[in-house]
Structures are given as C-alpha cells and as structure tokens.
Automatic annotation (TrEMBL):
Record SUPFAM superfamilies: DNA breaking-rejoining enzymes, lambda integrase-like, N-terminal domain
Record gene name: xerC
Keyword set, alphabetical order: Cell cycle, Cell division, Chromosome partition, Cytoplasm, DNA integration, DNA recombination, DNA-binding
Similarity annotation: Belongs to the 'phage' integrase family. XerC subfamily.
A single cellular component GO annotation: cytoplasm
Organism: Thalassospira profundimaris
Listed name of the protein: Tyrosine recombinase XerC
Length: 323
C-alpha cells in the first residue's frame, strides 16, 4: 500500500497499516505543508505530530468501526475524545505523551477551522491530563566546574579533549540546549560579546558570551585537524562529521562516573545549572526566560523551586533549631 504522508517509514506498522479515506489523507497533506511553511516546524516536530495524529485515527478506526473521513472527524463528540483519553490511560501512556498528542489534535482542528474545512467545538472541552510538575536537576556550581575541568579526561587525542571542553563550557556559559550547540556552524561561532541562537520553533534569541567560552572554542578550533569554513559544522566528531548528541551524552556519562555524580548529570543539566546559578546570583526571571528561549514564564519559574530547595537545605544545615 502507499506510504502515509511524511511518515518516512518511522512509525509502527500498526499505524502504517491504516488506510485513510481520500479527503482525510488530502487534508493531512495540506496540514503538514502548512506546519512546515507557515509555522516553520522542523521535520522532527512534524513527524511527531503525524505519529500522534495517526495514532488517534487508528483509535477512531476501532472506536467508530472504520477509518475516519473528514465528516467523521468533525462529528466526534466530547465522549469520543474522552474515550480516546481513557484508552491511552488504560495502555499506560505517559501523561506527558498524552498532553502532546492532545496538543496535536487541537492544532489539527484549529487548522480545519481556519481553512474553512469545518469546526468541532468538542475538542475545546477536553482538558489536558494533570501532570506532576518536574523540577530541573542542576549541578552545584562546584560540580559544574568539575565537569568542565574533566571534560577531556577520556580523550587521548588532544583536539578531541579540547572539543569536549569547548562544548561543555558553551553549554554552561550560555545555557544552550545540546541540539542548539551542535547545530552551530563554523560561521556562527561566538566571536564577540553575544551569540544568536535558533531554538525550538526556529525562534531566535540573543545570548551573551563570556570570554572564557570564546577562548575554549578558539583553542579547540586551532587544534582541530580538519579545515572548517563557512557552513561547516562547528563541533566535529573524530571522523570530521558533525558531532551528534549521543557522543556528547556518552562523554557526560563517563565524566559523571568519574566524579560520582547522579544520573541526572547530563548535558542538559548544564543548561539547568546555568539558569539556577543565575537565579541564585540575583538574576530576574524575565531575563533568564529570554536567555533560555522559553515561550512561557511558567517554564522558567520551575527554577525558583530549585533555588527554594537549595535555600531550605542550607537553612536546615545551618540553623541551630533546624537540627
């Protein structure tokens, strides 16, 4: 049978076995084009959306006794949507995964409304599943510096050791996501006092750059045996290709074993540490929100919980009546 639009063979066979009616399939195709052109969604994002949408279609196929036409999708009731949520809950789907899937459905139905294909108010009555608010797991300032000091401990080749040092210094010094750091090209390397970063949703932000970050990257580049110009990757693997996140994560696993750090000590923990240490040093939430590229301030506010826990730990350890 023909492949489903944009799936590239990645979803499970249970999804690719579903044959959609022509009107639904055509609508999904146009929706995908809209996501990529108007919303500037990445391939990774659109593929996740598509997996969520086809999983919903597969449920409706079983629930309603046939693959959904566009008319079927517009006629679904709150009860149908709640049955879908109950099905996900019964199959032990994570609440975070269900929240993302519900967001996908809302996006798809908004698209139907905006493009004149029809409305279904039932989707607006469905609430997100309640999730336990996760608290970031930063390193202490001492542990963060220890990670940087030992960044090249497991590399025999000096240039690879300097690469690791440059990468972890950049993550901690600028608060970048690992994907943001590894997507940088040579001509995007930090050279002045600030750096333009393209984050989630292709949104750009300006982050300040410490001299120590520039020094570490320049030192790595001067030692790198590969010639880099223009849009060549900034961070290279041993064979001269763009460094991948799995390698950085492997290096961090080695370092945390060496330093006896918890499993939460990941490359992303360096970003958490950046934010938490700024907050502890007097940084305001709005500024930290801009530096991290958070759309919502509530996301940044999670770091206040971390700082409060740290203060309480200090209090319990220092106050005579708390012992």
């Amino acid at each position: 049978m023909a492949d489903q639009p944009g799936l590239k063979g990645k979803p499970s066979s249970a999804l690719t076995a579903l044959t959609l009616p022509g009107d639904t399939r055509q609508t999904v195709d146009v929706w995908l084009q809209w996501l990529r052109s108007e919303r500037r969604a990445s391939n990774h994002t659109t593929e996740n959306y598509l997996v969520d949408l086809y999983a919903f279609f597969a449920f409706i196929d079983q629930h309603r006794g046939g693959a959904p036409t566009l008319e079927t999708l517009l006629s679904l009731t709150p009860r149908d949507f709640r049955s879908w949520l109950a099905h996900r809950n019964a199959t032990d789907m994570a609440k975070s995964s269900t929240a993302r899937a519900l967001s996908t459905l809302r996006n798809f139905y908004r698209f139907l409304d905006r493009t004149g294909r029809g409305q279904n108010a039932a989707i607006t009555t469905i609430r997100n599943p309640r999730q336990a608010q996760s608290v970031p797991k930063p390193l202490t300032p001492e542990d963060a510096m220890a990670v940087i000091d030992n960044a090249g401990a497991f590399q025999d080749d000096p240039w690879l050791a300097k690469r690791n040092l440059a990468l972890f210094t950049l993550l901690y010094g600028c608060g970048l996501r690992i994907a943001e750091a590894l997507s940088l090209n040579y001509d995007q390397r930090p050279q002045g006092t600030s750096l333009v970063i393209t984050g989630k949703g292709n949104k750009q932000r300006l982050v300040p750059v410490l001299p120590v970050v520039i020094e570490a990257i320049d030192d790595y580049l001067s030692a790198c045996p590969y010639t880099q110009t223009g849009q060549d990757p900034l961070f290279l693997g041993a064979r001269g290709k763009r460094l991948i996140a799995q390698v950085a994560q492997r290096e961090m696993r080695r370092i945390r074993a060496l330093l006896n750090l918890p499993e939460t000590a990941t490359p992303h923990a360096m970003r958490h540490s950046f934010a938490t240490h700024l907050l502890a040093g007097g940084g305001d939430l709005r500024t930290i929100q801009d530096l991290l590229g958070h759309v919502s301030l509530s996301t940044t506010q999670r770091y206040t919980s971390v700082d409060s826990e740290r203060l309480m730990a200090v209090y319990r350890g220092a106050h005579p009546r708390a012992r």
